[in-house]
Amino acid sequence: MKPGPTALDQFVKATDFLRKRAAEEGRDAFLALLPEEGIPGAGDTRTAAARAESRALEVASPGFARVLGLEDEGKAALFALRLQEHLPPFPVSAPAVDRSIPPLRTGLAAAAGALIGMGLISPLTALFFGSREAGFLLGASLGAFGLSLAALRLPENRKLLWALAALLGLATLREALVFLGSGSLLSRGWKLIRTNRGSLSRLVLFPVLLALVLLLGGRTEQIDRRASAERIKEDLSSWLEGAARVAFLMGTTETGAGSAPAGGELAALAAKILTLEGAAQDDLAAGMDELAGDIRNLGFGSGGETGEFAWDPQAADRFEVFGYIEPGDRVRVERPPLMKDGRVLRRGLVRKVRRP
Known about the structure:
Layout lengths: L6 H8 L1 H17 L9 H26 L5 H14 L10 E4 L2 H27 L2 H22 L4 H23 L4 H11 L1 H21 L2 E4 L1 H34 L4 H13 L5 H17 L2 E2 L6 E3 L8 E4 L7 E6 L2 E3 L2 E4 L1 E5 L4
Parallel strand pairs: 5-9
Antiparallel strand pairs: 1-2, 3-7, 4-6, 6-9, 7-8
Helix pairs in contact: 2-3, 2-10, 3-4, 3-10, 5-6, 7-9
């Protein structure tokens, strides 16, 4: 037998639209506290999460109270405070980060690659084929392709980026030491430049290459607000569903505690019950009818199902079943449910009718 929806499932379903609106309000409150540029720190994220939690509960708590039947504003406000105390903190995920490469940087890399390629390839084609023009054409294409690829791949491969930077940095340091030697640059500068012209070229080239590698390996990081909005809304929806379940349990406890008769009503019922002790048979029947009427006046009832009826799985929130029962089977009410103001305080019991 497939069980019908329980009272908890019905409450969660009834508050579905409310929780969606609360999740959207909390999402907007979270995004409003994030910086427009840059990546927020852990403290900023926690502050935004606390604000999102507060805003979501501001929207959801009054709705939970209304669905639970807490119409009084004072009781609803107290219920909202108690609900917030019982809930765990909102476990927000880190905002989604968009790591991108500026298109201008890729374009500049292609232009620089074309110039470098022409400068490197044209002497080779002139030497082997006697044509610099072919070197310009081939070098520009290969150079632009190579540096464009580097601009796209180096930011994603941080190990390769720092390895190249370290090698070029060490090469620059070595050339500087070789160029300077043990002499003073101020006193022997012109002589060093004239005698170590090749080393000077490398001393200028390596830092330029190092700067180029670092430039190509750089990337911009900023919050992906659209992806972050979807992620925060999903997290808030899950958290609010748990909050709805906690609210239902709290509301059931409060209504269960408030379902007992007040002190004066309880004393009156006790007095009527005691007067039935030792009463005659006719007086006993009339007294029981009067007592049942008083109980109904307090809001208690049995739900209306008596005798036999065709079993419907939706009745599972009001009745326990004895044995295995299929939908449509005839069942007999062995014990009626106890209800108050439409809420089930104790489920009744039904048993399948066995036909001979």
